[in-house]
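Progress note, project year one: complex with NAP.
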Amino acid sequence: MSVGPVWKGREMDVGIIGGTGPAGRALAVRLASCGPSVVVGSRDAARGEEIAAELRAAWPGRDLALSGTDNAGAARCGIVVLATPYEAAAETALDLADALEGRVVVSMVNAIGRVGRELQAIVPARGSVAATLQSVLPGSEVSAAFQHLPARDLAALDRPLDADVLVCADSERAASETAALVEAVPGLRAVNAGSLASAGPVEALTAVLVNVNIRYRSHVALKLTGLRSHGS
Ligand SMILES: NC(=O)c1ccc[n+]([C@@H]2O[C@H](COP(=O)([O-])OP(=O)(O)OC[C@H]3O[C@@H](n4cnc5c(N)ncnc54)[C@H](OP(=O)(O)O)[C@@H]3O)[C@@H](O)[C@H]2O)c1
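Model obtained:
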């Protein structure tokens, strides 16, 4: 599933709703450094533009196709990533349902709460954030991906990535477009982890990985061993 050139051939831009936070920013700059044009979305178009400008300025030697606008503008891109906090995800998606119609919507959202010093997974309605989003976006095809990648590593363009990204989706199109997006980034391998029924445990695993990072002062990434071949 080596699809970087295919991705470029599709000439599809990527919109990131809630793209001004650490996760959205990091994904935006990493993707833009690998070919796709990326639009950073915000509730405030000026903030989206400001963050896009900051990211371009942070990497002056790179020709980053990175712009910013409001979330509705990001939602009209060829493929759209949702990167808001868990609490805001469903309402935000619902507000943008018309703009998102017909598109693949990739949820990188995790439902996590803090209990004392420990992070714990929250079980959202329908078992996962991604399944909740699919329920409020009947005209879109939702996938789940990118939950486990620490923003700090994703944003460090001077350091290569080496990680697997689990992709869950109910439709073949959502799975394959999401896998293509993942593999537009060198060092990331998309692994088809099944339908949105599997998105819950995938999202919940993030809390476990963050706790490992806190305990070991590390930045772990997910890497599966023994995978002989993979496909969508
Ligand atoms: N941080 C990571 O390392 C990481 C890695 C993988 C996945 N994730 C997941 O990615 C998501 C975003 O993480 P983050 O750390 O970037 O979150 P964040 O900074 O808390 O939020 C991201 C953006 O969402 C928008 N937002 C905040 N509250 C909102 C609301 N009530 N309604 C609508 N939009 C709102 C804000 O953008 P505007 O104010 O510009 O609208 C904000 O910059 C989370 O679900 C997280 O679990 C995070």
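The CA atoms of residues 166 and 202 lie 8 Å apart.
The domain at 4-216 is CATH 3.40.50.720 (Rossmann fold).
No further modelling is planned for this target in the current period.
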